[in-house]
Amino acid sequence: MALSLSSYASAQTTINALFMSQAAYSQSDIKSMTQDFQKANPDIKVNLEFVPYEALHDKIVAAKGAGANGYDVVLYDVIWPAEFAKFGILKNVTQQIAPSLKDKIFKGAWTTVKYADKYWGMPWILDTKYLFYNKKILKEAGIQHPPRTLDELYTQAQIIKQKGLLKYPLVWSWSQSEALICDYTTLVSAYNGQFFKDGKPQFAKGGALKAIQFMKKTLDNKLSNPNSREYLEEDVRKVFSSGDAAFALNWTYMYNMANDPKQSQVAGQVGVVPMPGAKPGEIAAVNGSMGLGITQNSQHPKADWKYITYLTSQAVQEKYAKLSLPIWKASYNKASVQAGQTELVQAAKKSIGAMLARPQTAQYPRLSNTLQQSIQLVLQNKQSAHESMSRADQLISRLH
C-alpha cells in the first residue's frame, strides 16, 4: 500500500497557478472550479495563488527569473501579450488551438490572447463597456428608444438637459488612469479609428482624433459631468445609481449592481445597449478581457493546457455565467445564461464581437501614460485636440 501511494505521488504533476483576487470570478469560485478539475484529473494537483490586479503584472514578470520554481499558468490582461511575447514570458500555443474551435468563440475574445498572428493562451474573463441608460428619464424626456448613433446620444443628452431633468446627462470614467484609455478606445472604435498604420501612430487623425473631439464637445456644452475628468468606474456607477445621470459607459458588473435596490436608487429602470457607433447599425466596444496562458518556464505544458481548457470550457463558463459572460457564442442562447440578465446578454452578443483592443505594444505602460496625459490636456482646456495628439504621436513613435 505504501508503495502504491508513493508511486501515485511521484506520478502526480503539480501546477502553480496565479490569479487576481478581484476577478469577475471570486477566489472561492476559482477554488471550486479547480477542485472539480482535480477530481476529474487526479494525476494533476493545482496550487493556487491570488494577488491584487495591481500586483499581477509584476508578479508574472518577476517569476520569469524563478525558473522551474515559478508559475505555470497565469491570468493576464489583454494589454500585456505584446510585452510578454517579446520578452519570452508566455508560450506560443497556436498549434494547440484547433481551427474548428476558433469559430465557436467570439472573434473579439480571441484578440485578448493574440499578438503577431500567434496565440499566447485562451481567453477567459470576457468583458467590455456598455452604454447604460435610465429608462425613466428617457421616458420623461419623450425619448422613444436608446441612442443608435453617437450623434443621437448627443442629441438625447441635449433634450434631457433642455427639459431640466438633469444638469449633466452623461457621466464617464475619464480620470488620468487606464479607465480613461478604455473609454477613449471605445470612442475610437465608434469612429472606426485606428491607433497605428504601417507602424506609425495615428492619434492625431481619423477616428482617434474624432474620439477626443467628441469628448471635449460634450464637456464644452455641459452635457458630460465635468467631474468625469476625475472619475473611475466606481464613481460612474455611484452617480448613475443615484439617478444623477441618464447615460453612463461602464463594464458588465454595473448591470446587476445598478439593479440592486439595496445599493441603487434606479433599480428596475436600468437599460443597457452596446455603445453606438458613428453610423446607424454600427456599434463600439473595447476589449477589457483577460486570458490564461502558460509560462515559458513551465516544465509540464500538457498538464497546464488541460487545466486551462477545463477552466475556459463551455460547461464551466455557463455554470458561472452570472459572474462573467462566456466566451462561447452558443452559450448566449441558453436560458440558464440569460436568466435575470436577458438585456445584458442581448447587448453582449453584439458588443463582444466588435471589441477593439487597446494599442498593442511591448511598451504599453509608457504608451498608456502618454495618452492619458495628452487626453487630459485636452479635457482640461490646456491644449487643442490636434495639438496634444500630434505631440502624443511624436512621443509614441519613439516607443513603438
UniProtKB/TrEMBL annotation:
Keyword annotations of the record: Signal, Transport
Keyword Secreted found: no
Domain of life assignment: Bacteria
Pfam families: SBP_bac_1
InterPro entries in the cross-refs: SBP
UniProt keyword Lipid biosynthesis present: no
PANTHER family reported in the protein's UniProt record: MALTOSE-BINDING PERIPLASMIC PROTEIN (PTHR30061), MALTOSE_MALTODEXTRIN-BINDING PERIPLASMIC PROTEIN (PTHR30061:SF50)
Family: Belongs to the bacterial solute-binding protein 1 family.
Official protein name in the record: Extracellular solute-binding protein
Organism, scientific name: Celerinatantimonas yamalensis
